[in-house]
């Protein structure tokens, strides 16, 4: 059995300003940097070792990973954040409210040069399965990615109702999953 730790990046300037941040990027805030350092301490205190480390290709994820560990890592395009098209960098108040009720924006962004929920989710699941297939049994893998990546991935395992009750996708959140026989199982939220 293989273990996957899925982690969200630290707080960014756009998170703080409540601006839409998918394909675009913004730097980590002082709080984001401190939260990543706290996550590093958490991993060390709990003697959590990672045999493999990966991050999204976006700076906020790779910067977080570099604060969490000194280990070498690989970037994965397949776990970059949802592309919100022309809504990138705009106020989050302009986005449909379905995300908070259904856990998805559906195909809303397609007509605005963005990505559909279905294609986004399929990309994330495919990338995580391909990545974990290359890992040996008994090894631990850390992937630093994004809130919507984590949410849409977890929706492939649970209902939105269960996710809303049991899981938080706050900055620097960490979820533990196992991977065996090409199947993921959620274990717990560790941070």
Automatic annotation (TrEMBL):
Binding-site positions, substrate: 8-15, 60
Acetylation among keywords: no
GO MF annotation terms: phosphatase activity; phosphoglycerate mutase activity
SUPFAM superfamilies: Phosphoglycerate mutase-like (SSF53254)
Cited Pfam families: His_Phos_1 (PF00300)
PROSITE patterns: PG_MUTASE
Record SMART domains: PGAM
GO cellular component: a single term: cytoplasm
EC number from the UniProt entry: 5.4.2.12
Claim: Isomerase is one of the keywords in the record: yes
Keywords on record: Isomerase
PANTHER family: BROAD-SPECIFICITY PHOSPHATASE YOR283W-RELATED (PTHR48100), HISTIDINE PHOSPHATASE FAMILY PROTEIN (PTHR48100:SF5)
Protein name in the entry: Phosphoglycerate mutase (2,3-diphosphoglycerate-independent)
Organism listed in the record: Companilactobacillus bobalius
Source lineage: Bacteria, Bacillati, Bacillota, Bacilli, Lactobacillales
